[in-house]
Amino acid sequence: MSLPLLDAMLPVGRLAAAAGPQAPLRTMYFMVPNGAHMPAWTPASEGPGYALTPTMEPLAKHREFISVFSGLTLDGARAHEDGAGDHARSGASFLTGAHPKKTDGADIKNSVSVDQVAAQVIGSKTRFAS
Hints:
The protein has about 130 residues and is mainly alpha-helical.
């Protein structure tokens, strides 16, 4: 569960900019389907003064806009006793968080994905809804 964007979360000076004409909202989601070496992406300390890892160093100039979350698990991508198929299952659960029904038939089921929820809310403000 996340908090709504609060004024206190914005860097100094962004409140005034936010009051002016607003650019269309955008969202971006990306996935690393074959995993990543997480120690290279996980700072050793917490809080706003965290030290960037060598892998993250190229992001230094954008640091004030980056929040690092770690220790998260996409439980819907786990097997839950339905057998092999981890890569397909993780792709199917990536934006839904749901454990997809595994089937060879037409009765495949999942859930509404977060990008489709965003398209319903902000899609009318962009050239392409989704």
